[in-house]
IS110 family transposase
Amino acid sequence: MDTRRTADRNALTALLRSFDLGIDARKAVTDAQIRAIAAWRTRSTDDTADATIRDEARQLATSVLDLGRQLRTNRAGLSKHVEELAPGLLEVFGLGPVTAAAILAAYSHKGRVHSEAAFAALAGAAPIPASSGNTVRYRLNRHGDRQLNQALDVIAKIRSVHDAQTRDYIERRMAQGKSHREIRRCLKRYIARQMFRRLNSIMT
């Protein structure tokens, strides 16, 4: 639904930039503009071509709004399910209903994954040696549960922007000569460990 909403929003923006419909679309179309377009009515003064273009714009705007409502409903439902199954999980910084649900679905129940190392391997966040000569390096793991891996990646990105400790860690590792890819791998491994320990402590 999120992909469809983005596609419809982009199509609406392209339409507004291609035809003069009285909407300034030089910048990204705002939510207020989308609501206004969705409320358009057929005008008797429009010729067939103008009426068709306005109708298409109205349908795209309506689709964007409908999908937005569905996504909000789904997020609320996911939040409720996650809180029932793993109380307090959503309190972890950087987790939202979607990422928490992906992590919880992969973890399933206590005992399914026997260790934090196994959980990191399941997430594709376990380090893979990529050393050469005297240089000791590790690379990102392209295997494992990709939805779980994506959830860890989203959390890492959020923390990289909004968490002071994470930013300090990134700066420190960059000063040591680590690349952005290597730092991201380390962050995802740390988050996998944190999630496993948290779930192990709150789930029965």
Summary: Strands lie at 128-129, 138-139. The helical segments are 2-18, 31-38, 48-85, 97-107, 116-122, 146-162, 164-175, 180-202. The CA atoms of residues 110 and 201 lie 9 Å apart.
